[in-house]
Amino acid sequence: MTSFNNDEFRCPLKDGFKILKKDIGSLPLNRAIRDLVESYDHRHASKDDVAKELETQINTYLQAIQSALEYRHNQADILINVIDSDCKYSRLKIAEAMTLLREIIDRHEKTVLQQISTIEQEQKKQLEDYKNPLKNELHNLNIQKATFEMLITSNNSTKLLQMNKKFDDYMNKTNATLISFRIPTRTEYHLEGLDQFQILKQKIEQYGRYVEIPPYHNSELEQFIAENRTKQKFDLTGRNLTDLDMKIVADVLKESMTLTELYLAHNQIEEQGAQHIADALKRNRTLTILGLTENRIGHQGAQYIANALRTNQTLTTLYLKGNQIGEQGAQHIAYALRTNQTLTTLGLQQNQIEEQGAQHIAYALEINRTLTTLDLRENSIEEEEIQWMQQSLKSNKNLTVYW
Questions:
Q1: What percent of the chain is predicted at pLDDT more than 70?
Q2: Where are the coiled-coil regions (predicted)?
Q3: How much is the pTM?
């Protein structure tokens, strides 16, 4: 298996291996034997490696299952609290509405009853006032009748003839009085709209009902997700997506094990949509790039994202250009940067951060040593303030800031 030359043994493979004659006892095995030995060692080494890898994989899967179960358990608890809160709110609102309705009905009933009573009293008084003179005339009539009866009973014709003029005067006067006593008329009233109460009852029964809210759907977005679910990149730029759409995107982000890049620039995302995305970031373990350029998340939306950055350990790039986060939003982001150890690129252009907001960022970067690129252009930061911040950040050698 070897060649002998000048007291040397050389490998026939001519691989440069040689040994002196006196050291022949230590001569290596030939290539075939060496390959066999190496294969044997490799098989045993591979088995150990595979076992170790399998152990790690199973452990990872078990942890993933535990995490998924705990997440679903927590979501169930959250939904229970939401149901409790929603039902309490609904009970309160229907009670307020029904109380108001009862107050309106009671007030209207009281008003109408008072109106009826007032009209009743006025009409009765008018008739009583009309009856009083009539009573006087009846009294006078009874006197005249009694006088007349006395004369008839006495059979005194002379006296009767003497009283004739008095009787004529009485009758003429009484006739004139009766003419002045016009027979009263009654003004009639009726309850208008009572026939509408049945319709009103039906309307009341239709209002304030506890009805199911149909789930929100965006067929175009859902089709995009279905077609790209296993891909590493979602580009949803410029699709007029709203806060409701972010709930759909966030649900995917929470469960995804492959998505690493998510671009949501130039949409209609506001603070509620930012909250959905932030909640997903607290759970997601794969996303490294998030683009929210040119939306309207405001300072409240920035706070939601900042809270997520405190726990998220995978996101490295965040674009928030043109989101109107202002000084308050910059302060929230700054607080997150004090503890975040994964973010390397942060875009905050065109956010009305101004000097105060920029100072918050600068103070945070005196602690943070992970961020390498920061874009603060078009934020109304004066040159004097920029110079101060450049001096303040001079010790952070790895950081590049664009003003």
A1: 88
A2: none
A3: 0.62
